[in-house]
């Protein structure tokens, strides 16, 4: 989607365009937990996936009828070995981190998946840097704006995923609120995330990335700190406001950072940049969820002599300490951003 947007709209409108794209994506993630909670309140978890079927069929019909190619097809020669290395390397890393929270970080199977994945991925990236027509052009990381912008997107994405993973569990296990109501409590924060994403895109067009990203991470630090103060007896209003503050800061930093990264690329690099960001988000998502789960368990186990709600609340605090650390790192990277300039093309 972002690659199409970059091909259709001029660079000076890329911020607003990226913001609208983010609005669509974040709106889906906003209503997801709420709908899931309502479904689970009445039906089994299988229905979550059955309800995907009509939605996907509608999307397929729209794609066949309305979607057109905006770029000329280059039909490059595909290196089959690179495809295998890519699927194997990225897949094993995601599997390893996904299973780490359940099996433990010292599990032989988890360590084996991560080790093989890292080795295969190293071979894959080395190969991409040497062949004339790589599947992913990792040379674009030589552009400082793309590197830092992508790094900020990954940090921000990890913050959002860890928060959206921890908060609903705390509402259910810490505050003892039913799953359907937990989804409704999550809705305001998700909606704010979606609409701030669109506003942040417009702000990027007017003010650039640095100021907006700095403000966004500062607000995210505040929201994360507020979430470290939750307790089993805290009000629903407090948890809702805390999540909303975090969901103002995260997209305020994320949307401009992604635009900053993609805007540093030449036209022929757009597809590589968009694909790299999307691919890395899947890996970062698995890592963030695994770390948050581990910290949640560690904090819960650290409390003795109290009821389960108090113990789980302590685990929640551990999880949001992780979010604060990520936000501080993001703030430091934001402070090092330079004024936007169009980078020179890298040699393919």
UniProtKB/TrEMBL annotation:
It comes from Ligilactobacillus araffinosus DSM 20653. Keywords: Membrane, Transmembrane, Transmembrane helix, Transport. PANTHER family: LINCOMYCIN RESISTANCE PROTEIN LMRB, MAJOR FACILITATOR SUPERFAMILY MULTIDRUG TRANSPORTER MFSC. The keyword Membrane applies. This is Major facilitator superfamily transporter permease. InterPro entries: MFS, MFS_dom, MFS_trans_sf. GO terms for molecular function: transmembrane transporter activity. The chain crosses the membrane at residues 20-41, 47-68, 80-99, 105-125, 146-171, 177-200, 212-230, 236-254, 275-298, 318-337. It is a multi-pass membrane protein. Residues 1-342 form the Major facilitator superfamily (MFS) profile domain. Its main location: membrane. The keyword Isomerase does not apply. GO terms for cellular component: plasma membrane. Pfam families: MFS_1. It is found in: Cell membrane.
